[in-house]
Design brief:
Elements lengths: L1 H23 L4 E4 L2 E3 L3 E6 L4 E6 L4 H30 L7 H23 L1 H4 L10 E2 L1 H22 L5
Helix pairs in contact: 1-2, 1-5, 2-3, 3-5
Amino acid sequence: MVCLLVSVTVLHLVSLAMLFIATLEKSWWVWTESEITDLWHNCHYMNTTQTWVCAATTESDWLQSVQALMILSVVFSSISLLVFLGQLFILSQGRLFYFTGLCQAFAGFTDFAACLIFTFHRKEILSNSKDLSNGRFGFCVILAWLCVPLLLVSGVLYIHLRKKQ
C-alpha cells in the first residue's frame, strides 16, 4: 500500500510539474531557433545582447481559451494534490479518494481541450504574417499532450485507491 501511495503521489507531482512547465515556458510554437511563441509572448533572441526580447501576443478568442484551460488544468491538479494530502489524514479507513480523482480527471480533460484547440486552431492563434509551414510545435505542446494521459491515469488510480491503515 505504501508503495502504491508513493507511486501515485510521484505520478501526480510529475504531471503537475509538467503542467507548470507547459503553461509557463516559452516554446509552444517555434518559428526559428531564435524566434518562438508561447501562450503569453512572442520572443526573439538578440545575438548582440545575448538575451530574449519578448512582446505580448496578439489576443484572440482561441488563445484566451487555451490560456484559461491550461490555467484551469494547473488549478485542478493543484487542488487535487492538496485534497489528497488532506484526505490521507482525515478520511476513514476503507474510503475511496473520489474527489481527488475527479479533480485530477478534470485537470486532464481541460488540458486535453487546450491541446486540441491549440493544435487545430493554431492559424487563428498565431495570426502573424508568417507562414505556419515555416514553424513547428515546441516542446511545451508536447509536454501538454503528454500530461493528458498522465492526468487521466492518475485520476482513475485515485478513484480506485482505497485508504488502508
